[in-house]
Amino acid sequence: MLRAARHASSAAASASPCSTAALLDLESIVGAGGLSVNESVIENHGSLERGYVGWSRPQAVVFASSTPEVAEIVKACAAHRVPIVPYGAGTSVEGHIDCPAAGTVMLDLSRMDSVLAVHEEDFDARVQAGVTREALNEHLRATGLTFTVDPGANATLGGMVATNASGTTTLRYGAMKENVASLQVVMADGSIVEAGGRARKSSAGYDLTRLLIGSEGTLGVVTEVGVRLHPQPEATAAAVCHFETLEGAVGACVGATYTGAMPARMELLDAVTMAALDGYQGQSFASKPTVFWEFHGSAASVEEQAATVGELAAAHGGGGFEFATATEDRARLWKARHDAFWAVKARYPGLDVLATDVAVPISRLPGVVEATHADVARLGITAAPLFGHVGDGNFHLLVIFDAADGADVARVRELEGALVARAIAAGGTCTGEHGVGTAKLQYLDAEFGAPAVDVMGAIKRALDPLDILNPGKAVPRNRH
To answer: Domain for residue 265, yes or no?
Structure first.
């Protein structure tokens, strides 16, 4: 394919770091079907990007099928000084797969989708980076085990490692850092590194696994992941409860964290979000602040947890505590939660959506949420549905705006800046689970201090001296 187009494209390619020679070398590694410069293929590798920033496209997409192949691809890109952006499922929202450097190659790992091993007796599994969380759990269905990290989207495990993904079950089971035991990673020079192991604990050497989790593909390309598994609970029940006020709903969530109930999931959705969900794909909900809970354990403990939380909800003005134990009823509730983004998009056709998140200490959550709602009203934002995993202090905004309207964009930027500043002042973080990408770079000094960000830059410089691995993400380029 590329050889046939060589003369037609050589002039344009020579002006870019990704020369025709580089593309030919890559094609020799993956074969004619493994590299594409087709416009539709490139367009399909966009993501839910930030509306006022846009998405810079790669020059080519290369599909890898194995770790040795990834290693050869990285070596070739290093030789030609070609930037590489790893790609899993494209579900990130903070600019992680943006390709601002000219001539960037996007490295698609979705074909690396094999579950390599399941060790039932040790509660762990080994998968390739392109395996999605839903595919892994389908594979585990008959074993009585489950992989618990649920960010909502059907993301790949490699992508979830890259952003230290978490989600609806983090309250009880933890984020990726608590559920990844080992990694296989291709470094910037093409060397293949094994980090971590299957033992439940280790005091040996630097903890490379934790360093690489959340590094957003800037330190290495994850090709295999060793994950921790959990037994499927004996009993599971879900509940939904509507509140008259957002303050009451937040208070119930905060109160639940101080009880012994410890829900497996606890999701807050404000009235704007619930209004978008009402009627979406045939669903029916009251347009009021709402909390979804899920409880795991023995039948007796689930009943006890639900009773405790039900009393707490009532004390905070909750009404209509609806309990669901049937699989289909629970699936309906959690489908609604996972549909929130698309329901909001459908509610505001023709407008853009900025997805952003912060996390704060749980005791500071009520004040931060209340002030954020006040900012939305003060700035005259069209809408900013709020929802999230409030049991761990993490919440999201889906800000509705018109990217073609400069004044609207300015209001959105002001809202996000105020949100992040307030979260950091409360002892929190600029991003609880989305990651830094390109969008949150500007807030790192405020959160960590310049010396800490300089250390991050030094790590990036040491492991990727040519700055070819997802450049411009996670750490500002002027700091390494």
So the answer is: yes
Nearest to 293 by CA among 313, 278, 273: 313
The pLDDT of residue 212: 98
Residue 51 confidence class, pLDDT cut points 50, 70, 90: low
Query: Which of 22, 29, 311, 70 is CA-nearest to residue 192?
Result: 70
**CB 273, CB 397: distance < 8 Å:** no
CA gap 93, 435 in Å, rounded: 9
Question: pLDDT tens-digit profile of 177-192?
Answer: 999 999 999 999 999 9
| CB count in 10 Å sphere of residue 327 | 10
Residue whose entry in the numeric block shows the structure tokens 């046939």: 4
Which residues is 214 bridged to in the sheet?
A: none
35's enclosing H/E stretch is strand 35-36
Which SS3 state, helix, strand or coil, does residue 332 take? helix
Count CA atoms within 13 Å of residue 448 on its CB side: 18
Question: Is 386 a domain residue?
Answer: yes
Token pair for 440:
């949150």
Residue that is last in its domain, among 108, 135, 169: 108
1 domain-assigned: no
Separation between Cα atoms, residue 288 and residue 320, nearest integer Å: 12
Residues 453-476 pLDDT 10s: 999 999 999 999 999 999 999 999
Residues 355, 328, single domain; the answer is no
pLDDT, average across residues 330-348: 88
Q: Of the candidates 403, 398, 405, which has an alpha carbon nearest to the alpha carbon of residue 384?
A: 398
> Can you tell me the distance from the alpha carbon of 410 to that of 403, in angstroms, rounded to the nearest whole number?
10
**Residue 393, token pair as written in the block:** 């202090």
Q: Is 282 helix (H, G, I), strand (E, B) or coil?
A: helix
Q: What are phi and psi of 379, to 5 degrees?
A: -85, -5
Residues facing residue 429 across a β-bridge: 359
Domain range for residue 244?
235-341
Q: Say yes or no: 140 and 211 in one domain.
A: yes
- The residue out of 231, 259, 288 marking a domain boundary is 231
